[in-house]
Amino acid sequence: MTTPTIELKPSARPTSAGEREAILANPGFGRHFTDHMVTIKWTEGRGWHDGQLVPYAPIPLDPATNVLHYAQEIFEGLKAYRRPDGSVATFRPDQNAKRFQRSAKRLAMPELPVETFIEACDALVGQDKDWVPAHGGEESLYLRPFMIATEVGLGVKPANEYLFLVIASPAGAYFAGGVKPVSIWVSEDRVRAVPGGMGDAKTGGNYAASLLAQAEAATHDCDQVCYLDAVEHQWVEELGGMNLYFVYGDRIVTPTLTGSILEGVTRDSLLTVARDLGYTAEEGRISLDQWQRDSEDGTLTEVFACGTAAVITPVGTVKRSTGAEWKQSGGETGEATARLRQALLDIQRGITEDKHGWMHPLG
Ligand code: COI
């Protein structure tokens, strides 16, 4: 089956420059959307077809559409950055495309070719490039590719029709308070994912499953929830929507991928960036008791969370159900966290050399 090319059908009435600039002055996260979206259909027996770039608009769905009932849905998140010369580039879109394929396989959905995924993102960013915030700040254009099962019917089975879409949203800081240390509630009873489950797939169900524990975190005055493994309830896995890193002086450690942890692109990139900066960077198992002990005796110097949306966010306070509570790096942003954050952002914004070939320039 051949890959569709994307037919451009741009809006006749895009947002005015004044209105767009007002939005870009304070974009927040996921609150505003650009003028266009890309849609590509998949039908059994026909494959991918009807790739289009069209004005951003609601998508009509029959109430019996499969995804509304059984959640056969996957998504991605990646960013486009404005570089010093005014050009635009996305960060490692091939990695998101490959993870999208892995998620599709896990959810029994068709795999979109990597080049089609990238072509769709390029088409949208190319059309809406005025929505990519200016170089200089940390703002970017967040791309949200996703796929839903569109077959109409209530049978529980893989659908015979799907819709792939890409939408885009100008993004500032993910957390409303900007880049400042977040507080973490460690959930010692609720789990996010189980061995053999779909924790490593980027699917809405994993995020829906995280909301109750996230609400519990809020009742403990915490910004985010941290999950432990589902079997022994002691090994640190990840936050509701971000991976974790532990800093032991010049050694940084992130929980080993076990199948129930999302394979974050930022997580993966930081293993390399950290080594470039002279840190020892590795994957390993960290228990909650060890986290507490190593923080209290000072060997664990910093902890941070990472993800596309939040980039790198320092962890300031940790609370657990035993009543124990401690501060990381005195509740401030640690030195390694700040260095890694800056190094990654400098690559993404085209300030330092892209020696790993991660940036995908447009046009
Ligand atoms: C991302 O970092 O891109 C995420 O997917 C996290 C969240 C916004 C769902």
TrEMBL record:
What NCBIfam families does UniProt report for this protein, alphabetically? ilvE_II, PRK13357.1
* A Pfam family recorded for this sequence: Aminotran_4
Which chemical reaction does it catalyze?
A: L-isoleucine + 2-oxoglutarate = (S)-3-methyl-2-oxopentanoate + L-glutamate; L-leucine + 2-oxoglutarate = 4-methyl-2-oxopentanoate + L-glutamate; L-valine + 2-oxoglutarate = 3-methyl-2-oxobutanoate + L-glutamate
The answer to whether the entry has keyword Amino-acid biosynthesis is: yes
Lineage: superkingdom: Bacteria
Q: What protein am I looking at?
A: Branched-chain-amino-acid aminotransferase
GO BP: any one term = amino acid biosynthetic process
Q: Give the E.C. number(s).
A: 2.6.1.42
Source gene? ilvE
The similarity annotation says: Belongs to the class-IV pyridoxal-phosphate-dependent aminotransferase family.
The organism named in the record is Streptomyces brasiliensis
Which cofactors are reported in the record for this sequence? pyridoxal 5'-phosphate
Q: Which InterPro entries match?
A: Aminotrans_IV (IPR001544), Aminotrans_IV_CS (IPR018300), Aminotransferase-like (IPR036038), B_amino_transII (IPR005786), BCAT-like_C (IPR043132), BCAT-like_N (IPR043131), BCAT_family (IPR033939)
UniProt pathway: Amino-acid biosynthesis; L-isoleucine biosynthesis; L-isoleucine from 2-oxobutanoate: step 4/4; Amino-acid biosynthesis; L-valine biosynthesis; L-valine from pyruvate: step 4/4; Amino-acid biosynthesis; L-leucine biosynthesis; L-leucine from 3-methyl-2-oxobutanoate: step 4/4
Q: What class of enzyme is it?
A: transferase
Residue list for modification N6-(pyridoxal phosphate)lysine:
K202
